[in-house]
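OP here, attaching both records as promised.
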Amino acid sequence: MKEMINQLTQDFIENRDTVKKAIKLESSYIYPVAANVFCAAGVKADADKLRECKKIIKKNAGFGSYLKGNVMVPFAAKLCIADDPDAQFEKVMTMYGILKEHFRRSEYLALLATLLAEKTTIEEAGHIAARGRAVYDKMKKEHPILTSKEDSIMAGFMAFSEKSDSELIDDAEKCYELLREKFSDKDSVQTVSHILSVTNGAPEEKVDRMIRMFDALKKAGRKFGKHFELSTLAAVSIIDADEKELVDSMIAIDSLLSGQKGYGALSLDKKTRLMHAAMLTADLYGESDNAQAAVSASALAMIAAQEAAMCAAIAASAAASSANS
């Protein structure tokens, strides 16, 4: 495991630097999540191919498209790992069009379109989008003020579940109430509850496991962020592996990242670094030859960790832009 952790962390830094070299002047929060797209796929980033994929997006996405915003760099990375980037781009555009029939346009919806393009067919996308909207409406009914465009991606994620809509919402609500006893950020707690809802098990067990991991990290001197970072820890907590092993992996990766450029006093803070360590930990457990891997807890965790980290990067980038304007 130590060798795997060392190699993954090294690949992550190399991929990040390649992405940064290929696509300049983007937010420092965005580059790591784009780098992780390559890590999760087990391939090295290619600067020339990234530039070509960026051109595909710039040329074809349309004026004012959210696919050209903060989503663009991770989207370009996703196109890079596709067998046919042009065909994959067209598929994403089709998915985005289907989603816009059910949701308002946003960067989060653009991100959901890239997920749908990877995980389902155009024929099935209409059902997933409609179900995602139904789940979103149920979320809105439970939390009318909290629920907003950011939740569209989690509604879409939940729409892949074999559970019924009512089971998902009931589970999420129970998790939400339990999590609120520990964490005060209602928006972040709601997102965490959505991630936990897609997996089996009693809400009490799922929430307790995540909190134990949070506390174990804190005891080891690693304070996990209690805001947008929290959903990435939730994703790791649903991995079917020993709790201590998962915590130790996050700590080991965090230690390696602490010595890397980009994680010092004047760059990304310790909480963001630990979130990236959690994101990479999900990659460690995401690979499987199992034909059922698409519905396994570990596969779900890797997808959830990627999407959570991307959502966090969008939120952080938007906040940084507002502060600088």
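Record two, same layout:
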Amino acid sequence: MNKFSKVSVTLLSALAISPIFANVHTVKADNNVKYVKEKTYTLKKLTNRLAQAGYVYKLASFKSDDIKDINGKTLSSNTLKNLRKANPDFKVNRITIYSGATASQHVDLISKNHHYQVQTDYLNGAYNKNVNLKALKPIVKMELNMINKNEKQNLGVDSFNQLRKLVDNVSDKHAKKISLQSYDELKTYAKNKNETIPTLLLGQGIY
């Protein structure tokens, strides 16, 4: 899977988020100084959009440090072995963000037969398997270049015109549908600071 880096932005602070629980532990340092309690939120709008794509997500890694169960606990070596062997397709079940010290963001995934339910990092822990479709690789490459080379609100018209030409040249019906959706989502992303990346670009190292 291709990985791309992106300068960190304020982590989805403007997204419409709803708290699911706030009873999270307070960390104490050796000098007994208390830090701000970390709260967990579900990003409902983002969860729903990514979930609509269905079972199209793959795990980017099968290392114990990168995958946890949905409660954030380490998976057994046997479970990891079976998971790697099965390499199932996943659907997004929930996107959560931890406010406070870690400011981390996770994605909960569920396999089609519901046998596996795991949690991984939102930024690069899972990816949309459609990025590997030959017809979509030029689309993915250009979208990532557009985002990586520009500030979010400065994605130019010329770039979108070039991207649209690539989309129009896709002949496969399945790939065409995905490319059009990704194009529209990228335009929405560029216009609205509350939106996040296209579904196709999940796991490519950007928000």
